[in-house]
Each structure stands twice: as C-alpha cells, then as structure tokens.
Amino acid sequence: MGDGDWIKFLGTAGARFVMARQVRHSAGTLVHLGGRNIMLDPGPGTLTRCAASRPRIDVASLDAVVLTHAHIDHSNDVSVLVDAMTRGGLNKRGALFAPAQCLDGPERVVLNYLRDFPQRVEALEAGSDYELGGVTFSTSARHHHGVETYGIKFHREAGDLSFLVDTAYFDALADSYRGSEVLVINVVLHEEHKKGNVPHLSLGQAEALIKDISPRLAVLTHFGMTMLKARPWELAARMSERLGIEVRAASDGMTLELDEQ
C-alpha cells in the first residue's frame, strides 16, 4: 500500500448467510485518503482482519470510523474499533460518523461508555457535508433499507470516490452519486427477489445504475450467496464489455490504488 489514496476491502460478504458462514469475510473497508485512515462499516471480524492483514493494519492509527447504517454486518465491530482508536479512551482522538439511529435510541450500536472516547461524534444526515482533517465527504439521499441508511461520497481532486451501500432500487438513487469517478456498489442479489421485498440491489439494477452514473471505474462488492455462486469476477468482466466501463469484482483483502488507475 502506497502513500497515495487507496482502499482495502477487508471483507466482501453481503447478506446474513454469507456473513454467518464466513463464505467471504464480513469485515469493513479501510479508506486511505489525504493521509487519513477511515474505516467504513466495520462488520464482524474487522479487528481480526486488521491484525491478519499484510502489512498489518494498526487500528490505533485510525482517524475515523464511518457507519452507513445499524445492521450488524456493517456495525458489529464499531465499539471495539472506537476503543482501539482511542487507546481505551486514554487518547481522546479520532471521529465517529454514523446515522443518529446508530448513536441513540433502541437501535443504537455504539456502547454508551465509549461515546466520550472519540474527539468527535457526528450524526449523519441526508445530503449533508462533513470534514475530517482536510478530507471532505457527503452523504446521499436516504436509502430505502428499513433502517436509516446513507451512502458516502468522498471528494477528491482526481474525482469522487463513492460507496453506494445497501438499498432497494428507487428512481432517484443515481442522482446522489453523479460525478463519481470510482463507484463501489453493494450487489447482494444475482437476480431480483421474486417477492420483491428484499431491500438490496440485484446485478441488473446495479448495472443500470453504473450505466446511468457512468464512473470511470465501478467495483462490485457485498455479495450474497446467489452472486457468489454466479462467479462475480466473470459477471463483472461481462458487464465491462456491455457498458464500455471498467467493472471489477472485489475480493477479500483486495487493495485498490486510486492514484494508479
């Protein structure tokens, strides 16, 4: 991993069965931008995957943890990372960004005694702007996902890096992600669910979004069992041919150097 901007997929599991069986790891994504280390959606096993990473990821060097929503496959390790980032509260540093539902009320996922450990705790709201030591990002419109959920768009001079996370498809979804140079998109379903009540994107819906948003590079991740059985790397290659846009399938441990694309 170089000194420039990069992201590392510690895990690419999506949906409860892939997570429960650890067919793919369910850890988060480490985003390194402008010299800042940001952990996005630390699902189960994130701490372990950081320790096993080569080179090893020192969680005490994190500058922020960002949650997109409260579901366990995105938030399970948030408390342990906040504890580690702040050295058990001895170092009041770092930031935690999360929807209000993650921080307060019956669905909160951050342990109360840790709330004062970071230097900053900020509640995410739809279509809002945030800053972290020179790194700026914004949230999408609220996703259709049953709990308060927002995608994240990191702003870079070379072009925005966006994470289009869990959601059902809706007509205005692409609008929040226009101008993305690199689009990371969660694709749980190979085909739309027959009952139509699963709030996740299918491969066909993801392709329509990628075509509409037109990034330079799209990365598919957060795979459910049907996507894994269909061999996502082959699906991504065929999508690239159809769209004329580079599409890749993420794998556990994959590092994407943003400045070398």
Give a verbal description of the structure.
The protein is built from 8 helices and 14 strands. The chain has helices spanning 16-21, 46-52, 72-75, 78-85, 100-103, 203-213, 225-229, 232-243, and strands at residues 6-9, 29-33, 36-40, 64-66, 95-99, 120-124, 129-132, 135-139, 152-155, 160-164, 180-186, 217-221, 246-249, 255-257. The radius of gyration is 17 Å and the shape is globular. The model has no long low-confidence stretch (mean pLDDT 95).
In short:
The strands form 2 sheets. The protein has a 7-stranded mixed β-sheet with strand order 6-5-4-3-2-1-14. It has a 7-stranded mixed β-sheet with strand order 7-8-9-10-11-12-13. It is of the alpha/beta class and 261 residues long.
Q: Residue ranges: pLDDT <50 for 5 or more in a row?
A: none
CATH topology, anyone? Metallo-beta-lactamase, Chain A
Strands, count: 14
Q: State the domain count.
A: 1
Strand order of the largest sheet: 6-5-4-3-2-1-14
Q: Assign the CATH architecture.
A: 4-Layer Sandwich
Q: Categorize the overall geometry.
A: globular
Content-based structural category: alpha/beta
Q: Span between N and C termini?
A: 14 Å
Q: Number of helical segments?
A: 8
CATH class category: Alpha Beta
Q: CATH H-level name... which superfamily? A: Ribonuclease Z/Hydroxyacylglutathione hydrolase-like
Beta-strand share of residues: 15-25%
The Rg value, from CA coordinates, equals 17 Å
Question: Share of helix among residues?
Answer: 10-25%
Order of helices and strands: EHEEHEHHEHEEEEEEHEHHEE
Averaged pLDDT, please? 95
Largest sheet: 7 strands, mixed
